[in-house]
Amino acid sequence: MSDLIRLENLTVTYERHPAVHHISGSFAAGSLTAIAGPNGAGKSTLLKAIVGELRPAGGSIDRGALTRDDFGYLPQAADIVRRFPISVADTVMLGAWKNAGAFGQFSRKDIERAREALAVVGLSGFERRHIGSLSSGQFQRVLFARLLLQDARVILLDEPFTAIDQRTTRDLLDLVLRWNSEGRTVIAVLHDFEQVRACFPETLLLARELVSWGRTQDVMSPANLIKARAMAERWDDEAEECLPAGGEESESGLVKREPAE
Ligand code: ADP
Ligand code: MG
């Protein structure tokens, strides 16, 4: 398989505080990769960098001929605002925005595809519902329908099954596997190691630095998992030292963080 996305000594920082350091390696075209690692390991940061939401502070990301439209990205649930007054149908239609006309009008074909996408995720008849009225599982199904409509070559999912019921998890995991069998490249941040071992051939194990990246059976070894945990404990211990002298550069200007799980 040929390389689709290559990371070269990638470092990503927030206000100069590195969240991900010196990552090198590549995602092959058509690969299915899990990103695993402790809380605060930089998993979400790495996804945002790959999709182009965050710029590298060091190193580079080579996306070859891929453009922004080739990426379908599902952020972590905590980052998605659901109070926005928008219907299920309109949320799904956002997946077709690149086909929309100058005044945001969609073709009959796209509207039909949106209907089909909702049927695939088991939400036929939910079109007029306000997204705020859905359960978290139903809302995740809507976001997967939007990804279906978007028809992206590369799909990035950030903890897609966290706090989602088992039935929805099973259905949406099937969809992820189907996307991959269609030749799409899928990269998913996951915390369920059993799921990673059962369904994801490749794993990138992260603890701010790369612990290991390759075949899941090699990467998810007890020794590597212990190493990742030890690295996480070390950055907790060293947290004080990372603060700038005088503390004038507080977190106040930054996005508020959700508390760790
Ligand atoms: P993970 O997804 O593995 O839990 P994150 O990528 O969310 O980790 O975070 C990695 C580190 O970067 C953490 O120390 C986190 O507090 C910090 N961080 C994440 N997002 C921001 C932000 N918007 N501003 C400042 N620091 C952030
Ligand atoms: Mg995260």
SSE blueprint and pairings:
Blueprint lengths: L2 E12 L2 E12 L3 E5 L6 H9 L6 E5 L8 E4 L13 H6 L14 H13 L15 H15 L3 E5 L7 H16 L3 E5 L3 H7 L2 E6 L1 E7 H4 L2 H16 L1 H4 L19
Bound molecules: adenosine-5'-diphosphate (ADP) and magnesium ion.
Listing every helix as H and every strand as E from the N terminus to the C terminus, the arrangement reads: EEEHEEHHHEHEHEEHHH
The CATH homologous superfamily of the largest domain is named P-loop containing nucleotide triphosphate hydrolases
Kindly report the spatial arrangement of strands forming the biggest sheet. 5-6-7-3-8-9
Poorly predicted ranges: 240-261
Radius of gyration computed on alpha carbons: 19 Å
Small-molecule binders: adenosine-5'-diphosphate, magnesium ion
With helices defined by DSSP (H or I, 4 residues minimum), what is the helix count?
9
